[in-house]
Amino acid sequence: MRIIAILFSFFIYQHVVAKIRLPALISDRMVLQREVDLKLWGWADRGEKVTIRFQGKVYHTQPDTAGKWSVSLAPQQAGGPFIMEINELVIRDILIGDVWLASGQSNMETPILRLVERYPEINVSNNHMIRYYKVPTQEAVDEKEEIASGAQWYSATASDVINWTALAYFYAEEAYRHTGVPVGMLVVSKGGSNIQSWVNQAHLKEFPALTVNKDALAVLENAAVDQGVNKWYHADWDDREWKTVTVPNRWNETGLDVKGTVWYRKDFDLPPNMGGKHARLYLGTLVDRDSVFVNGIFVGATSYFYPPRKYDIPAGILKSGKNNITIRLTADSHDGGFISDKPYRMSNDEINVDLTGEWKYKVGQDLKFLEQAKKQLPNLVSMGSRLYNGMIYPLRDYEVKGVIWYQGESNAGDANYGKYLKALVSNWRTTFQKVELPFLLVQLPNYAPKSVKPPVESGWARVREAQLQTVLEVPKTALTVTYDLGEWNDIHPLNKKDLAYRLFLQARRLVYGEQLVSEGPLYKNMKIDGNKIVLFFHPSAGGLKSREHRLKHFAIAGQDKAYVWADAVIHDNTVIVSSNDVPNPVAVRYAWGDNPEEANLQNKAGLLASPFRTDNW
């Protein structure tokens, strides 16, 4: 009880002194996006004036009725470190540069510690101009205002770099080396997550199994909260509309059909000589759990049914004239209440106040509504959007340069992956209010034992195809091909350095506007020429060549849809495919399989062609 009282006092103290509160991201060593209007936000007590001082300018604002404030800062040029003052708070070591949101599943959060033997330079990293923040995992059935706490910004000095994830580090190094601009990597990922958990409910409407009944969800959210918390214990709370009941009583004896929490309030008068004196409360036995307040001050709690309730009222709480006692009573069944034939009084050496008789009461939480709402939400656990709600939505006001998306392993073979991916891009562009927010997609690498048989159905190949198709159809997106960077026996390949190089090559073209070849040959169309199929590629392919003397991993099929390995040769900007076993070919597949590691069609810049097929089987 003493510990509870101390904690309660601490929370009250924190509420008094913590007038300004900031999101976890807005903290020491953060990176802010350059050359755009910047939004800062936070929370403050009602009526509190908020003053921000940054880069020689002063900004003023104040919180709205919900306690939230925000202010827009003028665009900033790259540089730093800087400091920012927000009232009494000082944020230090701020950089202005490019912020990248890196998201996905476990390959996005592979810890850099796994790579130090392969890349020993990590241990002596000394780059203070690149920064990293890993958003803690938080799943939610509704959109959260804040990310979970517990994280911080790290630089890439030797003492900090081990806190990074691998791809974020190598990408930031590559970006900084090329641009000379500070880089912030905002990593928002969860191992094993599927893509639909990263898409909001509005963009999953065509998938009923992934959406929830919003009306039932609203009821659930309301029923899950005790309406009286932080309110009804105040001494001056207006309880005139509350119902009355005679104490002692049990809920099921008085017709109160509740399973949950009921608040009780009773006013009593004390003579002048009792003001400020110590007293003791005797509250018989309560079913099941109680918290007790006198004149708005917490005086005690008991967490289960059996003990008699005896709570000290410390000197200074009671006052002459009107006083109030409030009890928050919670029971797991319908028989909560006050046990009869027990003492209910407040007393000391001078006075005895009988607390039986008429009390005011109001239901704070009725769990039966919670149970009813849950029955209408059978897919509450399997619904989509949970990671979006808890980890992406709270970041919506933080400006970013672009998005890196590395995910798909958990959706291998999912026929809807392409739809999900397009929905995610649209969703996040809406959330961050950038219609052309750049997306750099990582195509799934090679994985699993190599097959000596011609192409068969492959879940990984289907996801790669969906990733390619998304880039072909959605503007301001780019795809990085990686089927030579994987490991057949490890779903988390270690070569994140070459992957980062290829990713930033795409960023140089898509985001920074450089004129360069950043991707491999892209299949365009085909024609049948007797017993051969001629494949055409987009002119931007940068020329065709083989990594080895002979092209590999092409397969060809006839009307029977039975693929066999084929011969393939480059002729100008085409590839001619044939097989003596297929005299009348109709379709070709290239690099189609879980592990097409030997596929070797590339351009003269050394960038591999994306896997493709000409059929729609």
TrEMBL record:
SUPFAM superfamilies: Galactose-binding domain-like, SGNH hydrolase. Residues 384-490 form the Sialate O-acetylesterase domain. Residues 232-335 form the Beta-galactosidase jelly roll domain. Keywords: Glycosidase, Hydrolase. Signal peptide: none annotated. The keyword Hydrolase applies. Coiled coil: none annotated. PANTHER family: SIALATE O-ACETYLESTERASE (PTHR22901). This is Sialate O-acetylesterase. It comes from Sphingobacterium anhuiense.
